[in-house]
Amino acid sequence: MKAYGTCATIFGGMAIFISCLGLIGLAAFVAERRSKEMSIRKVFGASIRQVMLLLSVDFLRPVVIAFLLAVPVAAWAMQVWLDNITYHVSLHWTVFAMGGAIALLIALATVGLQGARTANENPANKLRNE
Q: If both were cysteines, with which of 10, 18, 64, 114 could 27 make a disulfide (CB 3.0 to 4.6 Å apart)?
């Protein structure tokens, strides 16, 4: 029984790592495409925090939508699965809330690194090449 838990932990960690790699790649692509826009915003007085927020909102919105779509399906599937077990625990909303918060934090940290890199670039270097 312990081997199943270890296997699930390893493969779950690998899935999270692979999804973070995809999110980093997508964030880098979007940041590169919008680097001229971000440079112009910085020239006009936008702070680093505002630039990072602008990039992060584009990625956090799909995470929240996916969470809202996944919670009812996961709650239903878990309830059906637990109904077949003699001694089971009841599902509590905090389990789903913690999962959503962790997913949001992972996405925010992943995109935040790329956003910080884009926000800290010198706008003169990007605008000079155009």
A: 114
